[in-house]
Amino acid sequence: MTVELLTREGCHMCATARRDLTRLCDELGVEFTEVDVDRAAADGRPEIRADFGDRLPVVLLDGDEHSYWEVDEPRLRADLGRRG
């Protein structure tokens, strides 16, 4: 499973989500990547900002929206626990 955090520079909720996701993923031994939607749009991926830019931060699990505005820790724990 891949875990991706969509963020935007200067977003305080994104900083909180990054901290929470870092703690959780470190505990579970899972890596995540972070994508700044504005940078991604400038680099030729405008759809990512168009799709998710109004609900940041967003956690994607295997490319699908898992949660937004905060890390849904109980649900993410359960879903990551199912990974095989």
From TrEMBL:
Which Pfam families does the annotation name?
A: Glrx-like
Name used for this protein in its record: Glutaredoxin
Query: Can you name the source organism?
Result: Gordonia westfalica
Classify the source by domain of life: Bacteria
Its taxonomic path starts at: Bacteria, Bacillati, Actinomycetota, Actinomycetes, Mycobacteriales
